[in-house]
Write a structure and sequence with these properties.
By secondary structure, the chain is mostly helical. The protein is 58% helix and 0% strand.
Length: 174
């Protein structure tokens, strides 16, 4: 969560970022990496800009834990490198981050991590899977910009984010 928070931390309300809008179409921003629509589901009403600005870091981490890490069965992933980069992909891309992993693994692509996805992740060569997933996310970012050139403003930051993940051999003490 600390690594994700490094890229997602703090309040921002960029008008070109679709994650900054609530269900009423109001630009309310994101905070600590929690998109307006995610926070809306969490608090069960459309958040205001003040709600977003006043979100505590601890609440954001609780949302990350419950809505992302637990939902992707993060504790069942044996290689922490894979867990970290997949968690980041899920936070950054939503279920598309999970779909990208399933595509890389050659699985049925449904955006839901269950027993089959976890088994495939844990069976794969971790470093190869890590690097392949990382490249697939780079390709995804570039496709976003090709499809919507207004998103070019975010590309450099997205690439810095994904390349900040390095496969660490000693990340899995046993």
């Amino acid at each position: 969560m600390k690594r994700v928070a490094r890229w997602e931390g703090g309040y921002q309300a960029h008008k070109s970022d679709k994650g900054n809008y609530n269900s009423r179409g109001e630009l309310v921003g994101t905070n600590w990496g929690v998109a307006a629509f995610v926070y809306e589901a969490w608090i069960k009403r459309p958040p205001s800009a003040e709600d977003m600005k006043n979100m505590k870091k601890e609440e954001a981490w609780q949302i990350f834990q419950t809505n992302f890490w637990d939902n992707m069965l993060g504790n069942a992933i044996e290689d922490q490198n894979i867990g970290n980069i997949l968690f980041d992909g899920y936070v950054n891309h939503g279920r598309t981050g999970l779909r990208i992993m399933q595509r890389v693994l050659g699985l049925k692509v449904d955006g839901v991590v269950g027993e089959l996805t976890i088994a495939a992740i844990n069976k794969a060569n971790a470093k190869t899977l890590f690097l392949t997933y990382q490249q697939a996310r780079v390709d995804f970012y570039k496709q976003i910009v090709r499809n919507k050139p207004s998103q070019q403003v975010f590309l450099e930051g997205w690439l810095r984010r994904i390349y900040s993940f390095k496969y660490e051999v000693d990340s899995n003490p046993k």
